């Protein structure tokens, strides 16, 4: 509960069942990195377990936020969506910022480093806006096919995006090949994964391909 906004933020968390002790930490379990995941519009925060569990294997404590509540007004479908949807994206940014603070207060196994952000579609737009407004809080940002908010042209945080086989982003959202090279960004086109399948609805093969690309991004300096 964010009492300052009187808003409940449901969170599904994923973490290792057992934290191994480490000699480097004096026999104590090592601190976990925090990853914050935002769902696509109309998809629940619990419908990304395939990537959440994959991130746990990479040493992350994953918090998947439910950005929209049944009492919220639907996101606008008409007009200039970059203007009409901004308050909704901004609310999502505030949800993420609050969740990071609250989780670190309550979860002693988390480190204090900048976080990994992930988001699908609408949630990817929220993640990219967060990266623009709070770059010091994000270490890496992964978009699963966001289509509205431009990917920040920056080297910090590191930016990665998986693009679907069937939807095109708005002009200027995806960087050009020249910009990708300049800022060290990675953009991958998935040949056989449509936009609406970039969640637990994907096939086993599609999930495996997405997770493999996520691993490559996380393992690069």
Automatic annotation (TrEMBL):
Residues 34-142 form the Serine aminopeptidase S33 domain. InterPro entries: AB_hydrolase_fold, Hydrolase_4. Pfam families: Hydrolase_4. This is Serine aminopeptidase S33 domain-containing protein. It comes from Hymenobacter lapidarius.
